[in-house]
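Beta-glucuronidase
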Amino acid sequence: MLKPRPTATREIVNLDGIWRFAVEGPETAAPWSGPLPGALEAAVPASYNDLFTDPSIRDHVGWAWYQRDVWVPRGWAGERVFVRFDAATHAGRVYVGDRLVAEHTGGYTPFEADITDLVAPGAPFRLTVGVDNRLTNVTLPPGTITVTRDGRRSQTYLHDFYNYAGLARSVWLYSAPALRVEDVTVVTTIDGTTGVVDYTVTASGDAEVAVRVLDATGGEVARGEGAAGSLRIENAVLWRPGAAYLYDLVAEIRDGDTVTDSYPQPFGIRTVEVRGAEFLINGEPFYFTGFGKHEDTPVRGKGHDDAYLVHDFQLLDWVGANSFRTSHYPYAEEVLEFADRHGIVVIDETAAVGLNLAVAGGLTGQAPTPTFSPETFNDETQTAHARHLRELIARDKNHPSVVMWCVANEPSSTEEGAREYFEPLIALTRELDPTRPVTIASVIFATCENDRIADLLDVICLNRYYGWYLDTGDLPAAEARLEADLRGWAAKFGKPIIMSEYGADTLPGLHSVWDSPWTEEFQRSFLDMYHRVFDRVPEVVGEQVWNFADFQTSNGIHRVDGNRKGVFTRDRRPKAAARALRERWRRIGHHKPTGGEPR
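Predicted structure tokens:
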């Protein structure tokens, strides 16, 4: 699905701002009809949970409703009119007047509706959007709903971040011609100093298609005719980590000499390859340094905020990071566009977090419920997972910053049924995009001996917390266990290994002369220990600390105002570990460090 862009043939109206708001009740039950009752208003984009002081809204489980009046520009006569939502967490229903025009399930990918026949240029219409935050065994992420004794719904879930809900990303009204560009796919390769650009343009009907490639100055460097083709750009400037360069492929629908629709698709010329135990970008070994992140800020929750976007990337640059993972869901498109422009490398992940009932069993001491079964995560879950993959790749396939797809985070890959569940999904990912490697972030309980799916992956991504959840506070014991773990994976699979999570909860300002858990000194010593091990294991090609910044979680006695593993606080103040990472990462750049004596 193409992101709305203003062009000579298209116009957009941003619908962000203050909307009328209500949570589900006797007067606001679906299907929707009429104006919203009450006087509540909510900001868009933002999660609604932290906007209000009423705990019944923060803890609400079910539908919530947004509504506003929208004017269609009078100059849009004769054009098709669309309303687009960049996301609605976790499901959405859209009404124009009282007419249902769109439904979507999945909280982090866009959807839209053609509303041309229901609106009139120069006239207003009532736009109502329902968002449903309920999670079940067939949603991603999954969860369970129970009813309390007093009749309230209660939501539990298996992921360790707060279940923020609402319209957390922008809403758009846009116009486009009836015969228009509907999709663009760009795939690049390198032939010496020449960039090879394979393109496919999908139109809404039979159309004459032409394309032009513009460089960063707007100069034309290639052109082609037809809905698909291959173009060559001599002396191409490559997109490189830390040195981004973008071209535009301008797709045009023509009627003779007249351009009836035009859409510019930014892209970068670069290649990605796994060769043996190396991860290569443009044929050169690349070493990942960075973080798992979250879309999480005070008051806004998961609401996208351009100011935080700019500041977070400034902190990535300051600390010397070259990458991050979109843990644990696709981020806003603005984030990937910013990464494209600034040369930051991205591992792009679906919302498949929590497909692991064994973790709950381990925490409670009870025998775990089987993760994969007709009653738990089943064929319907797998179908939903496949839909998430299709929507993720369709949205993000043209971003040069995206170098790998992550199918899931910490699934129960050791259980019976794991291979049957994941093998078709991994195959689907490669079918949808054969140009990028595929991975899964592996839970600490999955070892090189008991994991059932690692052989299907291109890169081994490991989430490990030796010294925190295991061998708590005992860094020498944790160091030995970590190195043995990594060398086992390396010996068995011979694939690149990325430590996709490692970290320790840390309270800013808490200090000790000893390495005591929760202190700033312990977080720094913890990370130093991991880095010594990484430098001794040649197959390790990346380190992404958990987490970039502290973030909010559900209620739980094992969390103190959320997860505190951030190197920065939730309001982006550095802890001591941030300066230690800065010293290391700015020294090593994009290259694999070596050092330390083997144990």
